[in-house]
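Bumping my old thread because nobody answered last time. Still need a sequence for this structure:
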């Protein structure tokens, strides 16, 4: 199985996506987007607000409750030229996202810098008439990225509040327009809570509180987990085969009550978005890791190929209870770690039996994930969507895949 995935060529997972098919704005109302329904080979379509009538009633939804942070900060150099700093992830041994967002006075981040050649000053600065001042120091040049040290005058403000004051929502690079006031609301899900993403878990953008309530009325309840979406989600696969592709790492977070709920859930677990699916499958493999090795040091990060090397025989219940056992052994109630899991054709889902997602970029790891679930039928799904005026990518339409 591992060699099958490693030898996959991304050229087999591309398609022609005309620019006019990319949604640059959301639907007028969240749940008015179109919904393509794929049910074991059959394709139909409806509107997203009909999801309660469409879903298998024997389902349990899992939402990613991450919140997009205003990670883009526009500074100006001494000549008035814009320099954009895009915060990717906190820097420092043992520093997780929650610690970095709650930091006061100073915080170090790995960043992208637009216009770095124009940065000649010791530091860049943003200030206002109320005495607030944010400084950015270019601490180290890394390979394609930069280590930036931020410091601010306003000791009572956390870095989260600093970003809220001066940052901007980072729309995806393929949405080529200026940010609007409505993006601040519409590029967040209605259940966004845990700060840390630089991109939205876009499948969740279609849900309203009314739709969630209607689903619950039909017995379709939900859980919440967290995966903080990194900029690597937009990184295309540039290598000839998947073996050479460096899968990006993203933070996941789940509490013990949720792990227990999912361990004992006998319904069709349906993640909302590829981020939720990667989190669920990652949690399973961390449970297997603990059951197999009982090695605390191995529970910090799931590497790209771990899922293909670990034993495949544990049930969902066994694996999730194994992860609960790990938390008890550490006297913790939350599990936080990094995931580099790649899900591609040849991978067998251990937790999920359906998926709600958007339409993804050609040649992306997200499209590979879809192909892992429904095989070569992904081509029929995407051909249907292209031929029937579905809107693609982050602000586009949705699909419900049963496999």
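Sorry it took so long. Here it is:
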């Amino acid at each position: 199985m591992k060699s099958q995935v490693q030898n996959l060529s991304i050229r087999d997972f591309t398609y022609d996506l005309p620019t006019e098919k990319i949604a640059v704005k959301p639907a007028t109302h969240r749940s008015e987007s179109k919904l393509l329904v794929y049910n074991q080979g059959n394709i139909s379509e409806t509107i997203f607000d009909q999801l309660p009538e469409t879903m298998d009633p024997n389902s349990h939804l899992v939402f990613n409750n991450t919140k997009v942070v205003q990670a883009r900060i526009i500074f100006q150099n001494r000549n008035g030229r814009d320099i954009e700093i895009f915060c990717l992830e906190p820097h420092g041994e043992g520093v997780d996202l929650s610690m970095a967002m709650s930091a006061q006075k100073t915080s170090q981040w790995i960043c992208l810098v637009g216009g770095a050649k124009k940065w000649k000053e010791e530091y860049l600065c943003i200030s206002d008439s109320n005495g607030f001042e944010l400084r950015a120091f270019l601490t180290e040049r890394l390979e394609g990225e930069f280590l930036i040290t931020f410091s601010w005058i306003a000791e009572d403000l956390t870095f989260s509040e600093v970003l809220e004051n001066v940052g901007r929502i980072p729309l995806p690079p393929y949405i080529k327009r200026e940010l609007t006031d409505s993006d601040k609301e519409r590029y967040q899900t209605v259940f966004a809570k845990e700060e840390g993403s630089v991109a939205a878990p876009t499948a969740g953008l279609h849900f309203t509180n009314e739709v969630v309530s209607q689903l619950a009325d039909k017995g379709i309840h939900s859980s919440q987990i967290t995966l903080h979406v990194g900029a690597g989600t937009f990184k295309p696969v540039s290598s000839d085969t998947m073996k050479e592709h460096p899968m990006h790492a993203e933070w996941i977070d789940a509490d013990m009550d949720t792990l227990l709920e999912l361990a004992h859930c006998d319904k069709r677990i349906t993640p909302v978005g590829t981020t939720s699916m990667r989190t669920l499958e990652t949690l399973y493999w961390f449970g297997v890791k603990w059951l197999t090795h009982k090695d605390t040091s191995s529970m910090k990060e799931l590497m790209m190929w771990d899922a293909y090397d670990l034993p495949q025989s544990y049930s969902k219940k066994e694996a999730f209870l194994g992860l609960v056992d790990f938390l008890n052994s550490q006297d913790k109630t939350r599990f936080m770690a990094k995931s580099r899991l790649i899900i591609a054709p040849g991978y067998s889902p251990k937790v999920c039996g359906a998926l709600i997602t958007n339409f993804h970029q050609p040649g992306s790891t997200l499209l590979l994930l879809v192909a892992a679930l429904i095989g070569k039928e992904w081509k029929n799904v995407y051909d249907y969507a292209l031929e029937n005026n579905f809107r693609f990518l982050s602000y586009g339409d949705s699909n419900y895949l049963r496999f």
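The mean pLDDT is 95. Let me know if any region looks off to you.
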